[in-house]
Amino acid sequence: MLSHKLHILNIPELDKIITEIKDYFNYEVNYFNKKKDLIKKIDEDKKFFKNSIILINHKDLLSLKNKTDDKQIYCITKFPIKISNLIDQINARLIQQNYSTQSNINIKKYLLDINSRILKKTDKKLKLTEREIDTIIFLKNKNKPVKVDVLQKEVWKYGTDLETHTVETHIYRLRKKIKDMFNDDTFIKSQKDGYIINE
Question: Residues near 165 by Cβ (< 8 Å), separated by ≥ 6?
């Protein structure tokens, strides 16, 4: 599960409200009194602002526009505001960010688009199933060989009663699809201690 963050810049009334109700939603909330502190944090730690929304007032909008993605900024133009509308806006922007992030994941010399379930290399595209996407992402994130029983449990969500041949057959078909389309039989390697995607 992604950890979502809410950063509030110099809107004390809003900070007080959000602090009171933050147990009702799943955000980490950070308050910045000064614009320069927020800008410094953005410059120093880009990862801190991943999966984030920055709530600002209109006067601070221009100075932050070039510092981060527009989808991360929500400008509060007037008070009073309806908290339910604000939370809807925050959630919508976080969904947009996640969609954009998932559009292009680099794996080896390939581009994986989770949203359209396509693996691309140069002008060639291969349509994948959701399970194939899950398998590729799981192997990519592990960076070490993964045994079939781990894939069976973590990706397929099956217990030990499932034949391990079922998982092996799926991976064999996935490797064959990639080889047939891209002439690449090393994308997913089979080793004695499991399957691996080497970057």
Answer: none
pLDDT tens by residue, 122-138: 999 999 998 999 899 88
Please tell me whether residues 85 and 113 are part of one structural domain: no
Q: What pLDDT digit, counting tens, does each position of 164-191 carry? A: 688 889 999 999 999 999 999 999 999 9
Q: Residue 124 maps to which CATH number?
A: 1.10.10.10
Q: How far apart are CA 7 and CA 15, in angstroms?
A: 9
Q: CA 151, CA 135: separation in Å to the nearest integer? A: 8
Please report the beta strands in the chain, taking only residues with DSSP state E, as ranges in sequence order: 4-9, 27-32, 52-57, 73-76, 105-107, 110-113, 118-121, 124-127, 189-191, 194-196
Following CA atoms 57, 62, 66, 69 in sequence, which dihedral angle do they give, to the nearest 10 degrees? 40
Look at residues 75, 103, 131 and tell me which one is the last residue of a structural domain.
Answer: 103
- Cα 35 from Cα 55, distance rounded (Å): 12
